[in-house]
Amino acid sequence: MTADVRAVAVEVLPEPGRAEIVVTFEDDQAYQVRYAALLGEDRFAPLTLKRVRAAPTTDGTRILWPGGVSLDAASVREAPHGPVPLDLVRVTPAARRWRPLYPWLALNDPPASQRCKEAQDAPCVARLLGWRVEELTLALHAYPPPEVALPRLHDLGCALAELFGSSATTVLRRPWPPARAVRVSDPLVSMLDAIKAGRPDLVERPLLRIAAGDP
Predict the structure, then answer these.
(1) Which of 3-7, 43-47, 130-134 has the lowest mean pLDDT?
(2) How much is the pLDDT for 214?
(3) Looking at the 3D structure of the chain, how many domains does it have?
């Protein structure tokens, strides 16, 4: 019997800083789910390890972590009403997966999400962040494949430009409390440090609060 494409996973991405994954299916829908409720079970302990990434099995019917921990891909589609305690965060078209700032940017008139003709244009993304292309290339080692990471960093650069204008690249290098609050072996001081360490969430979430007018 042919598997239902709606439940065939083709890609799994970790969401930085949270017990969440973004699963893309063959029907070009991406489901972001939170699995924090599973972490109390011993068999899911490997999921707490840093840099442990899941991947779909060859047939796409399961999501597999190193060590043999797995989930039915269908359980992601069924969240939060399925048998596995997963929380549904959002569903997006696959082309907009792993881009948490995109919905806010798209609301601007004209859309601030269109500063680059192509979100995967590395030289443009580097300019938005005030980097050389070589710096961007080096930073991408901390991220999933470039075709996924570049659009997210593009959106981050757009958000900084929208909120801080010509001062954006200067703000990137200033001390940033959300980054400094994270305990890691190499201390993070600025937004730039957080982005290069693969933690864009330490910049994105505070920026969304600033955009919403929250203190």
Answers:
(1) 3-7
(2) 79
(3) 2
Q: Are 61 and 7 in contact (CB under 8 A)?
A: yes
Residue 193, CA atoms < 13 Å, CB-side half-sphere: 18
146 and 200 fall within a common domain: yes
- Condensed to tens digits (0 to 9), the pLDDT of residues 48-93 reads 887 778 999 999 999 999 888 999 999 999 999 999 999 999 999 9
> Does the pLDDT of residue 40 top 80, yes or no?
yes
Tens digits of per-residue pLDDT, 119-133? 788 999 999 999 999
186 and 141 share one domain: yes
**Contacts (Cβ under 8 Å, ≥6 apart) of 64:** 54, 55, 56, 57, 70
Residue ending a domain, among 61, 81, 96, is 96
Residue that finishes a domain, picked among 34, 66, 96:
96
Q: With both helix axes pointing from N to C terminus, report the angle between 146-164 and 201-211 in degrees, rounded to the nearest 10.
A: 40
Residue 206 shares a structural domain with residue 106:
yes
Answer yes or no: are the C-beta atoms of 20 and 32 closer than 8 Å: yes
Instruction: Give the residue numbers spanning the domain of 128.
Output: 102-211
Exposure class string for 104-133: b at 16+ Cβ within 10 A, else e: bbeeeeeebbebbeebeebebbbbbbbbee
